[in-house]
Amino acid sequence: MLNWGRRSGKTTEFAYEALGTSLSIDNAQTTYYAQTFGDARDIAWDIFLDVFGEAVTRKNETLLEITLRNTLGGTSTVSLRGWESVYQAGKGRGTENHLILADEVAFCRDFLTYWDTVLDPTLLTTRGRAVLGSTPDGFNHFYDLTQRAITTDGWWYSHATSYDNPANDPADIDRKRKEIGDDRFSQEYLADFRKKEGLVYKEFDRTKHVYTEIPAGTTIAETILGIDFGFVHPAAVLTIHIDRADNYWVAQEFYQTGRTDIEIAEYAAAIRSHRVFADPESPSAIEELKRKNLNIRPVVKGKDSEKHGIDKVRELLKAGKLHIHASCRNLILEFETHGYKDDSDKPEETGEDALDALRYPVMMTFADQHTTIDETIYDDKPTYSLIGI
Questions:
Q1: What value does the mean pLDDT take over residues 87-116?
Q2: Where are the alpha helices (DSSP H) in the chain?
Q3: Rounded distance between C-alpha atoms, residue 368 and residue 345, angstroms
Q4: Could you name the CATH architecture of 2-190?
Q5: Topology adopted by domain 206-365
Q6: Is the whole-model pTM more than 0.85?
Q7: How far apart are CA 251 and CA 263, in angstroms?
Q8: ∠ at Cα 264 (260, 265), nearest 5°?
């Protein structure tokens, strides 16, 4: 595990790791993952070819595959990929690797989940190994991986700063500290974990808002579901318990791509809930939920509804009344990474699927009594606020 700062030589180190495996193991398969296929082509490709030198016997610049002659008289293959091939296309499952290299994993969406379920198993039959590296990006899944590396047998952990690369001029690095501020500098150049700047939910704190067990004596008054539909991007369903003190306990998450409206409705129907709050922009998906006899409640979605919902979630965080179960890794990840667009008060339009599934029920159950509800696509049942009941 490499926790290294900017321009500390991560990609070059990955290339040497690939070279060593390719030369010493016959028919070795090494797969390198960059944040995107474009990064693999534009950044890593030339570095790998330069390090491999005369060992290269064939290269495919379209597929980004390199064949090397090894010391045993055979050949080995190094394939460069973008993380989207795993996250969006589900590729990698069922293959075999002698070595996996993953670069900038802090910026690879849902890396930890796909590492555990897709990539790590590809090393079993070969008894292979992996080198994972990144610069930190807040306390996200990369932080979790570094803690695993530090505390678990069989892992190796390395920390390096931008100062450790002799090719960097220390004076240039010192200038960066003055330009970007201490927190960002410490994260980017010293590889020190800091809370990410520009977060929508800057109040979220794992130590305060993540739990493993609901305290004994807590009385649950209601169980509600929040649903954000999706197929190419993840569909998210959150199970939320509300206790008599108006605490919200997010108990479990469903977070998957490639799921149909029917499959989402079947999952939701299997959970005993009192009310369901779903994205109103998908009437056909809402209809599938109704067919399962779920109590679908209206969700306001207008000009200011997103800001209104964000504000209500932030109020709960500030009051210490929103609690996320530790198993809800995607929701936690989105809390720690979802930010505002550059120089804007508008949130980014990616990385908020689970957050949307949380925002819908929170803004409708924690709403002001005077909020106007548009029920045109639902039914004539009234909606209720927990306030004033």
A1: 89
A2: 10-24, 37-39, 45-52, 84-87, 111-114, 141-151, 170-180, 182-190, 206-209, 261-269, 283-291, 305-319, 329-337, 353-365
A3: 23
A4: 3-Layer(aba) Sandwich (3.40)
A5: Nucleotidyltransferase; domain 5 (3.30.420)
A6: no
A7: 20
A8: 115
